[in-house]
Amino acid sequence: MKSQDSQETVSVVIPFYNEADQVGLTLEATEAVLKGTGLDYEILALDDGSRDRTWEVLLDYASRHPGIRLIRLSRNFGKEAALCAGLDQARGDAVIVMDGDLQHPPRYIPEMIALWQEGYQLVEGVKCSRGKESFLSRAAAGLFYGIFRKMSGIQLKNASDFKLLDRQLVDYWKTLPEKDTFFRALTAWMGFRRTSFSFVVDERPTGRSKWGFRKLFRLSVSALTGFSSRPLLLIPTLGSFFLLAFFVLSIQTLINYFRGLAATGFTTVILLQLLIGSLILISLGLIGLYVDSLFREVKARPRYFIAEEYDGGQAIEEKQDEGQAT
Question: What is the pTM of this model?
Answer without folding.
Answer: 0.67
